[in-house]
Amino acid sequence: MSFLSYLQRVTPVCLLVVSLLSSVTAQAQTKRALDPASVSQPQPASLLVPPGEGGGTQITLSGSSQVCVNSPASFTSIGSGCSSWYWEADGGTISQTTSSDRSTAVITWSQPGTYTVFAEAYCGDNSSSASRTITVVAPPTPEPIRILGNASQLSATSATICEGSSLELVPPAGSSGWNWTGTGERLTNGNYRVAPTAGSTTYTLTYTISPNPCTTSSSFTVKVVPAPQGPVVVDNTERFGPGPLTLSIKNANPGYVYSWYDTNDNAPGANSTPLAQGSTFTTPSLAQNKTYFVSTNSCYASTREEVPVTIRLVRITAGARSRQLPCGYVTAPP
Fold it and tell me: Which domain holds residue 103?
């Protein structure tokens, strides 16, 4: 059989197979088109449409990203065509929402930490949301107020000055935003000059210390006393025989602090720690004369004044007369 005769015999068969395959393919495509399960269905729209996605209205959420504990902070959300807002404050309390559409919220946190503020806006048929991370910080630890000027009885929170004197109160190092309360003169460097006339006056300073944005406050009390008038007068400075004495200042002022020492403040190795403080001092048991010292701390610390103590060991009585001999004096027998 020639090749030409072979082609003439098989060609009709191939054409029939191709025709059958085309028919089966067309029927399958028609069935798929009519099957509802095979057709892509539209998905329902989400209730919350994030800003810039899904066709929702883009909203903004403004407010500080760092707020202070127990300090109300205001947050505002803006969106075109939005009629109302819903707010959530992670860990915070929403104390109020302002404006008729509730687009502004005032939120307070009672503990430091990191929180999230969430705002949802309803804008026609859509809703959009926005959130903001907030860092809540506690106020800094109060630092002591320092002073410039002559004062006594100093502590971290108080000092005593003389009647008619003044004192400069100095804010803590590194502080700013100073706000003083109490009568005085604010100086350009932030110091506060005060001149109370009598009694005790307390001054309060409110301030911040960078980088903490929160305010804190410190107080300082200034006490006014009159200056000492003359030297101290001490009673009960002698006794007969060994034993203790209770030294007492006759002209003591209740506003002064009296300190007792057993060395002079100018002496080498002088004791800077007093034996006792107050208008009276009880000595240990003494068998011989001794000199104590007392300083008066009123509006300034005075130099130490001598207080001689005498111990008399012998008392001689002859008839109606008696005389006292100093310590260690011995008489010959009659």
Answer: 59-137
* Torsion angles phi and psi, residue 205, rounded to 5: -120, 125
Task: Assess whether 243 and 313 both reside in one domain.
Answer: yes
Residue 117 near residue 130, CB atoms below 8 Å: no
* CB within 8 Å of 142: residues ≥ 6 apart: 216, 217, 218
Quote the CA–CA distance of 224 and 298 in Å, as a whole number: 9
Mean pLDDT of the chain: 79
Judging by DSSP bridges, how do beta strands 167-170 and 146-148 pair with one another? Answer: antiparallel
| Residues 202 and 250 placed together within one structural domain of the fold | no
Residue 293's Cβ-count burial label (10 Å; 0-12, 13-18, 19+) is buried
Strands 104-108 and 238-240: unpaired
The 10s digit of each residue's pLDDT in 16-54 is 443 544 554 444 443 433 343 333 322 222 223 344 343
Tokens of 2: 């020639």
CA pair distance 127, 85, nearest whole angstrom: 9
